[in-house]
Design brief:
Blueprint: H1 3-20, H2 23-26, H3 29-62, H4 77-94, E1 99-105, H5 111-114, H6 117-133, E2 140-145, E3 148-152, H7 161-175, E4 179-181, E5 184-186, E6 190-196, H8 208-224, E7 230-232, H9 237-257, E8 260-269, E9 275-286, E10 290-292, H10 294-303, H11 307-327, E11 335-338, H12 341-344, H13 349-359, E12 367-372, H14 373-376, H15 382-394, E13 397-403, H16 410-415, E14 420-423, H17 425-428, H18 435-451, E15 454-457, H19 463-472, E16 476-477, H20 488-511
Length: 512
Amino acid sequence: MSGTGQTRGWRKAVELIGDLTKVEAMMFLPALTLVAYWLGGERALTTMAIGLPLVLLTARSLQPAPPGARRDGLVTPAVMVAALDRVLADAPETGKTTGSFVLRIDDAGALPDRMDRPAHAELHARIAERVCDALRQGDVVARLDRNEIAVALGPVNRLELESALQLAARLQMAVTPPVPINGDRIYVTCSIGFCLAAQFTDGVPVTGRRLLEAARTAADVALRHGPSAIRAYAPDMAGSRADRDALRGELETALEDGQIRAWFQPQISTDTGAITGFEALVRWQHPVRGLIPPAEFLPAIEEAGLSERLAEVMLFNGLSALSNWDHAGLNVPTVAVNFSADELRNPRLAERIRWELDRFDLSPERLSVEILESVMADTDNDVIVANITALAKMGCGVDLDDFGTGPSSMVSLRRFSVRRIKIDRSFVTRLDEDRSQQDMVAAILSMAERLGIEALAEGVETPGEHAILAQLGCQHVQGFGVARPMPLEDTTDWITRHRSRVTATRREGLRL
């Protein structure tokens, strides 16, 4: 036999013995030992019982790993692209086609905060196993990065949009069940983008690389519309992705360089005029375009997956401001920082806030955590509930923002130990001219008083609105009628001037 023939024979034998090493094949071991006993007696029985498992395990270790395989069992992107190229090259003869799918884990940035590195690696391995189990024998699965898995379909006779959507939904269902790790149940969802070879009609040759990149572009779009979104590739996505990549880079630079930072708007007492706190509001001081309002860039921050980084900047800016005011002897009681639903889904949020407060040597009651009414109503999310409860127990003030516009209930107000409700500006505008508005605000304030909760009115712009709110019993006001948001460096002069005016007003009142 030639050397080539011997090599082929050896590989065939190894593959055959490798098949016997599967769990199902090992079930025949008792029967084989019994046959050995019949044929050769006790010595043959002993030899078979001890020697055969060792032979099988050794043979299994000799099996060659699949070309391009990684330690987690998935192939490399290059191997996957080659698999796609083979199907595309054979398509004129076979009439078969293929497609590429890319799975992105939703909210992947929060995963490292929920678990240590080994648990994180185990989670990704388990997700990869589920994806592989949901596919056919000839499909190829590759890991693009830790949070991104790609699928190359083996040759299929017909691949239409509807069947591709059904496959994407099946992959999502495979990933969704909780993953038990270290006694915890980790819930993960994924967004999926895909591209079919038939979707390219521009006359440019279709390659495996092009198919994969198109699926990744679709996955970008899906992730922005997630969680659990599915998107098919469309030609106009490529240009949009380039624009978003450029904007993301600009936003990252702005966050790191301090262009995006907190400005501060004062909150004052309607009874004494004293400053009761400041709210930290995000602003972008662009080096070329000047001051950009939040409405123009906050959606881009969210789409770029930079919400968590923005939250870190705002919390740091807020606590830094308190520390600066303390060192200047200005005695500002609190600073309010807004927390989004994404931030509140981080199981380690309370731990991080406690660390930041210790870092600045500030007591928890000096931080007011502002939460939208619609977010607080999301009581089905255990992590959000646990975080709000933990922050309240820590001593942080919990402010319910935009009160009156969402679905919160009396139960939520008591359950989460809300310290203050913020009456939405829609109830405040022209309050001094609209009797029905006054009745509505009076009812809100009466409820808050019964529950022992303070109230702050937002968007106060005129002396008339300020006056009627004071008459109705609203303890705090905030808005352009008090002061516009200002950078930290301008707050010192404003605080000094405001306190001088309050002192002068009190003296004038005493004279009268």
